Amino acid sequence: GSYTGIESVSALTGADAGNYSIGTISGDYEVAKLALTGSIATGSSTYGETLAPGAVSFANLVSGDTVDGTVAVDTTGNLSGSSNLKAGSYTGIESVSALTGADAGNYSIGTISGDYDVAKLSLTGTIATGSSTYGETLVPGAVSFTNVVSGDTVDGTVDVDTTGNESPGGHLHAGSYTGIENVSGLSGGDAGNYRVGSVAGDYDVSQRALDVSITGTPTKTFDQTSAATLVPDDFTLGNLASGDVLTVTQTAGTYAQITVGTGIVVTATLGASDFSGVGGTDPADYLLPGSATGFGTILPQPSNSQTGQAGINALTGLPQDPQTNGLTGPGGPADAALNILCGGVSGTPGSASCPADQGQ
Predict the structure, then answer these.
(1) Which whole-number Å values give the CA distances from 59 to 40, 112, 345, in the listed order?
(2) Could you tell me the maximum CA-CA distance found in the chain, to the nearest angstrom?
(3) Contact, 84 vs 189, CB < 8 A?
(4) What is the 3-state secondary structure (H, E, C) of the chain?
(5) What does the alpha-carbon distance between residue 349 and residue 347 come to, in Å, rounded to a whole number?
(6) Cβ count near 104 (within 10 Å)
(7) If we measure between CA atoms, which residue out of 51, 214, 175 comes closest to residue 119?
(8) Degrees (nearest 5) of the Cα angle 327, 333, 335?
């Protein structure tokens, strides 16, 4: 400090000092404050929390003096939307803002600074269950963060981890999955202050409806039964996901009639065991139909009239006489020849000609 009149002549010296006495002589005195030197430990906190500056250590305090320092953090130009110091590492933003203690008045603050670190805040929250149909684009659920600092803008991008659960075509298999949704990235004006914590969600994939029809026109020769024999090429499968290949292995079907004809409805009953995946395709990814329909043909048996052997009439399914082809007119065997000549159309009993437009 500055002191007035505290200097005085306390003694005289010299060869003639004895000839003099000390009168009223005084002077002032000034003591400059000692500029403190030292260091400040690196302070740290998590984004959004109260700042915690490091402690100051003075290097040149006079022994016996009591002096403490208050450390402040200069956040100028580094605040987020919520007025918090942004996450990151800062050099020299800590400083001594004030001195306290019994001897503080004897000191001034020199050039003392310190660094400060702000850790990113780990986000918590939930992700809604996402869902889609097998083979379609995945639709993740939306993320909801529970600890974003009020005033900040942060959004999350949700991805679905399909590792180990993909079909050969790159589709997530049908089923329910726990915890495979996750936040893959953050966006928004304050995203840089946050990191992704343990935020996960579930995902459901429903089976894809498979369309199956019989398009191969199953064909057989009349045999008095409705049984149809089918091969994989008789079936056409629709609504398959890209890259998937399935075949139908059902070999049995049923004609809607047992008589000769074309365009006869053919039905095949299908079960899960009647489908086979090719190249790793899994039928379980599909909602499989219980049946398939199409159209088939039943051909007449070759005529046995020249072989003399008994057989089945391809039109009626009844046993036939090899001499009459099994077709008798209303008049009995006498009209058999007429029936043969007339293509199996009965004539008038005892007549020698075919009905109109039926003659050969």
Answers:
(1) 11, 10, 129
(2) 192
(3) no
(4) CEEEEEEECCCCCCCCHHHCCCCCCEEEEECCCEEECEEECCEEEECCCCCCCCCEEECCCCCCCCCEEEEEECCCCCECCCCCECCEEEEEEEEEEEEECCCHHHEEECCCEEEEEEECEEECEEECCEEEECCCCCCCCCEEECCCCCCCCCEEEEEECCCCCECCCCCECCEEEEEEEEEEEEECCCHHHEEECCCEEEEEEECEECEEEECCCCEEECCCCCEEECCHHHEEEECCCCCCEEEECCCEEEECCCCCEEEEEEEEECCHHHEEEECCCCHHHEECCCEEEEEEEEECCCCCCCCCCCEECCCCCCEECCCCCCCCECCEHHHHHHHHHCCCCCCCCCCCCCCCCCCC
(5) 6
(6) 17
(7) 51
(8) 75
- Angle ∠(325,327,330) on CA atoms, nearest 5: 155
Asked if residues 220 and 300 have their Cβ atoms less than 8 Å apart, the reply is no
Q: Report yes or no: 71 and 31 within 8 Å, Cβ to Cβ.
A: no
At 50, give phi and psi (nearest 5°).
-65, 135
Going 36 to 37 to 40 to 41, the CA torsion angle's sign is: negative
In the chain, the amino acid numbered 304 is N
**Per-residue tens of pLDDT for the chain, all 360 residues:** 899 999 999 999 999 999 999 999 999 999 999 999 999 999 999 999 999 999 999 999 999 999 999 999 999 999 999 999 999 999 999 999 999 999 999 999 999 999 999 999 999 999 999 999 999 999 999 999 999 999 999 999 999 999 999 999 999 999 999 999 999 999 999 999 999 999 999 999 999 999 999 999 999 999 999 999 999 999 999 999 999 999 999 999 999 999 999 999 999 999 999 999 999 999 999 999 999 999 999 999 987 554 444 555 545 445 555 554 444 444 444 444 444 334 444 444 444 444 444 433
